[in-house]
């Protein structure tokens, strides 16, 4: 069996004769011992070595470069390896190009704009594919075999709606208290604290009930949709579904979108009622307004159009959240890191689009007189 790397010092002619295996596993303390012979060395004789790998060649090359010694005794293959290591051992110059801050900011804005454009085009295409899937499922209701997945949709009802009642109720109750408290503080300066009831009732039913519910559903269910579909994409379950003739849009996307669209009006109305109850607790505790008076005042000042506004906006918000979550999940590729990135994008895009659409709804309902 060959020995580990070693060398003998022939001080008479300044030659170091190496023996053994010059490989990573057998170098041992050879680099430290060579450091003690960094002067008076003119030749490195490698004719007695049994093996040479990249690390051994690099060690000899660096020592020869340091001492100016000549390397001899290598066979053809060893010499080729040594030459390749020597050629690769060159300093790398990295020159960072200076980009003016203004130009860099413009470049980042341009990249973000292009990314947003491509994302919007992808969302529109995904919306079209979802619509076609809904059409195919609706058609199958009259022409068997039926392709509507009832059990999957009911399960999404539970995940999106029933399981969210607790957190949405708590959030809405606290928001109702905050609205009533802040409104009462400001209105009290003008002796009009009784109008806190108007403020709480109209804000809860018209805006904050459905809007805060949409934000909560986007963070809770939209992110879950993206993570679930993204994981299925990574594990090639979606590709397997296509292979056996099952449409992922019909089996995975449609139940999630349908459940979110149908549950959002219920959750939004529920959140608005809980917010009104929270406001009532504050009005009773701080302003001394009896519950009967509070409820009667709500009935008088809140028009039925406010209820319609919330119920009309809710399914649209639900569709946006579900489509954004499913779209981002279906875009996952390459590695598990993409799941986290796409999940974050699903939440951000869902909330952003909900707020944008809410602004359009506000202008639209104002224009038709539903103030």
What's this model, at a glance?
With 371 residues, this protein is an alpha/beta fold. It has helices at 30-35, 54-67, 76-88, 101-140, 150-160, 165-188, 196-234, 237-243, 248-287, 291-301, 304-330, 337-367, and strands at 6-10, 15-22, 43-52, 70-72.
SSE order and pairing:
Elements: E1 6-10, E2 15-22, H1 30-35, E3 43-52, H2 54-67, E4 70-72, H3 76-88, H4 101-140, H5 150-160, H6 165-188, H7 196-234, H8 237-243, H9 248-287, H10 291-301, H11 304-330, H12 337-367
Parallel strand pairs: 2-3, 3-4
Antiparallel strand pairs: 1-2
Helix pairs in contact: 2-3, 4-9, 5-9, 6-7, 6-9, 7-9, 7-10, 7-11, 7-12, 9-11, 11-12
Keyword list:
371 residues, alpha/beta, four-stranded mixed β-sheet, 12 helices, 4 strands, 71% helix
What does this structure look like?
With 371 residues, the chain is of the alpha/beta class. Helices cover 71% and strands 7% of the residues. The protein contains 12 helices and 4 strands. Helix 1 links the parallel strand 2 (15-22) and strand 3 (43-52). Helix 4 (101-140) crosses helix 9 (248-287) and helix 7 packs parallel to helix 11. It starts with 5 loop residues before the first strand and ends with a helix.
